[in-house]
Design goal:
With 458 residues, this protein is α+β, with helices and mostly antiparallel strands. It has 16 helices and 8 strands.
Length: 458
């Protein structure tokens, strides 16, 4: 690699990708500060802006050429298309045509307020169908494509990404269930794809100290129907949802013990009400309110039984669903932090070494997400894949925190006080830590799993 730093060769895109990973694993700043600075300038130049050239020259050890300086000054001129987030936004345009431009045309503060137009634009662009398979009238995005779409959405509107994550998690669970049962899941999937239905999730999201598999609703069987009572708070998409999924326990069909199940509750079912809950300005556009079910009756056809027992063990259906959840949620918060990085690159105030450091951190975090997602798309699922996703999520959580802090510092005080965007994005990026399962609850289960025990989910 040292030959690149001395101007003896011009690195290609592939070689610079390798350089990113070398920086991640063995940063040279301590022992070779000159090399670190020269390489950082090259990385910042190459990743943040797209040039007509097939490759980008690195700075020579004895200083920049006039051409190098000219290229750096042109990074973010209107004539040059930014390379950063370009791949993700292309994916968004492919699966949700027009959504990126629609979101980009609206100020962040407007997108993040209650009753934002974000969800309307999402539905108009066909977003609800993202992970619905082609055979059920959807575009059939795989896990890699889906995480790219969510990162792109989050870079424009964090609230929209977080709200729609819960929808995609629920739909992905329906897709998995459809492969295992002869129920009505296929009809729901086609309705979601063709009518743009939004599905809210009533799992144990956001309840401090509660396990993710803990039922949010009480259920009993009466006259051949399932009667539901309980509440879910916060519940994203509370106002815009067309269908609510809720975790419940039901008596086994043989009368011995209980199993986990998922109840599907259509909007407008008698006994379903929505109450105000969310009092924070952060992620207010996600419609995270309280949903209350009081003696809600649904037919048995709208209950999907799983193979999971009430002992924090995941069955294959739940494992796949929560694998989607962790990957999509992690990619979304990487997208929130990416919005800050994008502003740092556009401002071009920060030292190139700092800009490159931000790029290396955030792109490496996304690469780990895509790595697990690619394995999932090729059939790598089950406990090992879920453990990989959790490790990826907790590592990204730390990266996001560092990137947000350094981005705010790099943008400076005037950017912080002249607009609410910087402070808002920094605050929103911290919320990944609040999604289940928390790091503290999974510490012992992960240690036990890698010691050879089954994976328990806290």
């Amino acid at each position: 690699m040292s030959r690149f730093f001395h101007g003896q060769s011009v690195p290609t895109h592939f070689e610079l990708n390798n350089l990113i990973h070398l920086y991640w694993s063995d940063p040279p700043s301590s022992s070779h500060p000159a090399l670190a600075r020269q390489g950082s300038i090259a990385l910042a130049t190459f990743i943040s802006a797209g040039f007509d050239e097939q490759s980008v020259p690195l700075h020579r050890s004895r200083g920049c050429t006039a051409r190098d300086r000219q290229l750096q000054q042109r990074h973010f001129s209107k004539e040059i298309h930014m390379r950063f987030l370009n791949r993700e936004r292309r994916a968004l345009d492919e699966f949700c045509p027009g959504l990126d431009s629609a979101l980009a045309s609206v100020p962040l503060a407007e997108l993040e307020r209650p009753e934002s137009i974000g969800l309307k634009e999402f539905k108009s662009a066909g977003g609800p169908a993202l992970v619905v398979p082609v055979e059920h009238a959807g575009p059939g995005a795989d896990a890699v494509q889906a995480v790219r779409v969510q990162r792109a959405i989050a870079s424009r509107s964090p609230s929209l990404a977080i709200a729609t994550n819960m929808h995609h998690f629920s739909v992905a669970s329906l897709v998995e269930s459809n492969t295992r049962t002869n129920g009505l899941e296929w009809m729901l999937l086609e309705a979601i794809a063709r009518d743009g239905l939004l599905v809210a999730s009533g799992f144990a999201e956001g309840r401090t100290g509660q396990a993710i598999l803990s039922p949010t609703m009480h259920a009993n069987v009466r006259d051949g129907k399932v009667v539901l009572n309980g509440r879910k708070k916060p519940c994203s998409l509370a106002h815009s949802m067309d269908l609510l999924t809720a975790s419940i326990t039901l008596p086994d069909e043989d009368g011995h013990g209980e199993t986990m199940a998922v109840a599907l509750v259509p909007k407008g079912t008698p006994g379903m009400t929505v109450r105000p809950f969310w009092n924070s300005f952060v992620l207010a556009g996600a419609e995270s309110e309280e949903v209350v079910l009081t003696d809600v009756e649904i037919p048995m056809d709208l209950v999907v039984r799983t193979e999971a027992r009430a002992d924090n063990r995941l069955d294959e259906l739940q494992t796949t669903g929560f694998l989607w959840f962790e990957l999509l949620m992690t990619a979304s918060y990487i997208g929130v932090a990416s919005a800050l990085v994008e502003r740092v690159l556009a401002a071009e105030k920060a030292d190139p070494a700092m800009r490159a450091e931000l790029l290396v951190e955030i792109e490496s975090a996304m690469a780990t997400v895509e790595g697990v997602a690619a394995g999932m798309a090729h059939g790598h699922r089950g406990e090992q894949a879920f453990a990989d996703a959790l490790i990826c999520r907790y590592a990204a959580q730390d990266v996001i925190g560092r990137v947000a802090r350094r981005s705010v510092e790099s943008l400076g005080g005037m950017a912080y006080v002249s607009s609410s965007d910087v402070a808002y994005l920094a605050a929103a990026s911290a919320a990944l830590a609040f999604h289940p399962p928390s790091r503290s609850r999974m510490a012992q289960p992960l240690c036990d799993y890698f010691a050879g025990e089954p994976l328990q989910v806290g």
